[in-house]
Each structure stands twice: as C-alpha cells, then as structure tokens.
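Researcher: I need the complex structure. Ligand is adenosine-5'-diphosphate. Inputs:
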Amino acid sequence: MEKAIYGFQFDGTPVECHEFGHGHINYTLRIKTDTGAEYILQRINKYVFKDPAQLMSNVGSVTAYLRERVTDPRAALHFLPAKDGKFYHVDEMGQYWRMYDFVGGFCLDAPESDEDFYQSALAFGRFQEMLSDFPAHTLYETIPEFHNTIHRYGVFRHTLAADPWGRAAGVQRDIDFILAREEEGGTLQRMRESGELPLRVTHNDTKLNNVLLDKKTRKSLCVLDLDTVMPGLSLYDFGDSIRFGAATAAEDEPDVGKMGLDLHLFEIYTKGYMEACPSLTSREIELMPMGAKILTLELAMRFLTDYIDGDRYFKAAYPGHNLIRARAQMKLVADMESKWDQMHRIVAQVASQVR
Ligand code: ADP
Ligand code: GN1
Ligand code: MG
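Model: Output:
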C-alpha cells in the first residue's frame, strides 16, 4: 500500500490498492477500504506540472464551481482533504499526491457504440458551456503554451538541433512530414492572438477516457482529468476529442494502415458538441475540421519531440512507443487531408440541422 494514502482523511482501513486507468501522465491507484468506500489516489507528475499546488488550486475552484451547477453529486469530482486540510499531500520525497472519491462508472479507450461517443460530446460540450461564465483570470496556466502550436514547433526545432540521443537521423521522413505543415499548424494560434476566435475556459485534454460513463445508463456522468483546465479555444477541445475518439484505430496502433478518420463518428461528435454548446460562433463551427487536424498534428509533433528527446514526458510502455504514437497520429492527419471536403460538408450539414 502506498504510504501517501495515510496523508489523507478518509473512511475505513484500506484493504486493496492497484494501478488503474490508461492515463499517460499521472500515477493513478484505485483504493478499496473495509467500509466499501473506494478512492482514487494519484501522484501528480512533477516533470509535466511544475507547480502542483497551483494545479490543485485550479482543480479545486473548477470542481467547486461545477458542483453548484450539477444535480448529480457524481457529476463533479470530490477531493479529500489531507491531514493538514490542503487538497494535496507532499510525501518525504517531495512528491505531490491527491485523493478523491472513485466514481462508480467506467471509461472507454474507444467508443463501443455511436451513443457512447455522442455521450462524450455532450459531456465536453456541457462542460464548456457550464464554464462559460467562470472567471478565467483566476486560473493558473498549469502548462504554459499548452496548445500554442507555433510554440510547439519552436520546441520541436530546438529538440531536433540538440538531438540528445542521436535519434533524429533515423526519423527524417517523419520530421519532414511535421515541418511541411508548420504554416497551417499555426492557424489557430494566430486566430487566438487576433481575437478572431473567442477565448474560453477549456479542458484541453478531451480524450474519451477522460469522461466517465454511468454503468447502468451509459450516459456521461462526469469529466475527469482537470489538470489542464485553462483559458483556451473550443477547437482545442473539439479537435482533441475527434483525434482520439473518431479514429479507426488506437492512438498507438503500430499498423498505420489501420489508422484513419471515421467520418460517421466525426458526424456524431460534431452533432453532440454543437447541441451541448450553443454559444459556439459560426467561425468556431467553420473551423472544426481545422481544429481536428491541428490538434492531431500537434500531438504527432509532441510524440515525435518526446521520442527524439529520450521519452521524458509521456509514459512509454516499450522502446519506440512514442515514435509509434507519432506515426499513428501523422497517418490520421494524412487521412483527414484526404477527407477534408467531406469533413467540411458534414460540419455544414450538422450546423444547418442543429442551429
Ligand atoms: P492522467 O493525467 O494520467 O490521464 P487521469 O486523471 O485521467 O490521469 O486518470 C487516469 C484514469 O483513471 C482515467 O482515464 C480514468 O480511467 C481513471 N479515473 C480517474 N479518476 C477517476 C474517478 N474519479 N473514478 C473512476 N475512474 C477514474
Ligand atoms: C496526455 O493525461 P492524459 O493521458 O489524459 C496529455 C495530452 C495528450 C494525451 C495523448 C497533460 O493525456 O495532452 O493529448 O496524453 N496530457 C498532458 O494521449 O500532456
Ligand atoms: Mg487522463
């Protein structure tokens, strides 16, 4: 049993503890106690999140805000106080931990039905809509420039120049693919800076496995993983959901022949998101295909950067995992390019029905 658990105030005696979920960033444990209460205990990744106390301040204020706007108590995460009353505990190694109620639902790594994916669109769309009046200036930037693709290109070039493991030469075609799309990749950032797209409070990590579904009804219960909630663009959230959930293969599928965009799932998500988030502007809607493409391109670049940098950021299950991930994402970008007109037609058609 992780000693960190005894830093928190919780019910009962822990009887079971195992690693849980498929997140790439934090170390997540599911804990059972003799009273039947279940918890999530997480060690926050300090390499990724430089200031865990600020991060927990964000998560605390967002969950408090959401709790006042939802009826089902399971719809907003509930954190347990540590022995000193804070919502995190620092162990003797200087590691930061947090503990919260386990919600009796389930998360999917791929939709099992259209309805599952539609439910995730409603969850993220509502999340966005509920936070539309949240005082954005009170949030810390937990990861500065998180979806600033122009900045990400800068980091990519810097890493290529340093090439600490001599890996760049072996992946020149992959590097060329990313660099060939640099101009287009900066589109959203330029529009954010010019004010053409509205700044909102966004989730920024809208993978399907960051939504919890109810076991019985399979309706979406709650949005998880609030570590990256920050001011951002709705297209980050829309785009990242498409990248992960409307793909024909897993994010790390080694056989790129299997990877592509499922246009039917793209349509389902687009519909759910527009329904749940009526405040979307027509410019945001027009740019939905661009959001999907740029978020996929950006993550391809982030995985490739991490591969070249020696796999320091994303948890890797085997050597070369980040390169496999990068190639799967690049294939998805290429497939979106080949379906570009169809993606636009779908968005226009859904908008004419929903709005
Ligand atoms: P990471 O940043 O590493 O992705 P998450 O906060 O997303 O960390 O947690 C990892 C996984 O743990 C989630 O994808 C989900 O499957 C599971 N999980 C997290 N919180 C809960 C919860 N309150 N109830 C049930 N499962 C959870
Ligand atoms: C990480 O934390 P997790 O596993 O939900 C990453 C996202 C990536 C995603 C790719 C803080 O998400 O940005 O899109 O992996 N989160 C962070 O699977 O970098
Ligand atoms: Mg997660």
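Model: Summary of the prediction. Strands lie at 14-19, 27-33, 38-43, 89-90, 96-101, 105-106, 200-202, 211-214, 220-223, 230-232.
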